[in-house]
Amino acid sequence: MLAFQRRRLAAAELGSGASWALLWQRRPLVNVRLKWYPSVFREHTGRRCFGLTEEALDLRREELLVLRSSEPDLVDRLCKLLMLTRDRSLPLNAVNQLRWDLGFPSDYLDSLLPRHPDRLRLVRLPEGGGAVDLVRWDDRLAVSELQRNADPGADAEGLAFPIRFTRGFGLKKKCVSWLQEWQTLPYTSPYADASGLDPRTDVSEKRIVGVFHELLHLTLAKKTRRANLSHLRRPLSLPFKFTKVFGRHPGIFYVSQKLATHTIVLREAYGGGRELIQKHPLLGIRERYLELMRRGCIDNRRRWSLREMEMETVEFAP
């Protein structure tokens, strides 16, 4: 992520060059690291500053256009995320953990929230820090992806989740029977009040699965690191050890352990393959940044670090 962060800093002054004096004080090797990616960063001779190459600048301008055209969608995503919570509010650390996955710009607090005061607001918490609050409930958004995609004649109270197992994956007969019965249980919308559900029941577990099914649909790549969910237990009214549902429902969620990082992936979004069925334009921009960085990478060993930023690659078994 380091090179992406440097690129955004340099892009703040499109083409004029950005001062890196403070970064040099804090990171003595930052100048060396920027030189690893000559197709993205260019050094101004005689001055201790870097700017973006013309190709990177063109891509950055295109990214800004995509961000502007996607703003209504991004605002809806943030509102829906807040509508999933009990208090219609999330601490900033929780939102920031999901910021990249949801597609928000790095300066969303300054660029996104102030333009929508009728829907979102930034508040200071009594215990310190800040939070993003939902200003008003939007019934238009309070429809889950599962409800939206349900067949017209389907039972709204017993909706079943799309199931897709890896080729060769076998379930014991007893598990198949339980899963079939579990799918027919009442479906609780993730936007509905679930305070009356007994957390020890399978109905409650289906509600938890529904919450994460919806949450992953809000992300651009339909996946997120499990660590990003650490601050969501209380806001989403989840029980302790709620992450067990990912292992109990391998036909709905895939847990990737690529690069020793646990990533929760929504299987249905990939159709059993490696590519998203529907790809957001921002993901296309990110792929092009990665390709630009690969092409100009001087030290071939640094190509391994680029794998950490591959947002679309998912390791499904063939």
UniProtKB/TrEMBL annotation:
InterPro entries: PORR_domain, PORR_fam
TM ranges: none
Species classification: Eukaryota, Viridiplantae, Streptophyta, Embryophyta, Tracheophyta
Tree of life domain: Eukaryota
PANTHER family found in the cross-reference section: EMB|CAB68190.1, PROTEIN WHAT'S THIS FACTOR 1 HOMOLOG, CHLOROPLASTIC
A Pfam cross-reference name: PORR
Gene Ontology terms for molecular function: RNA binding
Domain PORR: 34-296
Organism name: Acorus calamus (Sweet flag)
Protein name: PORR domain-containing protein
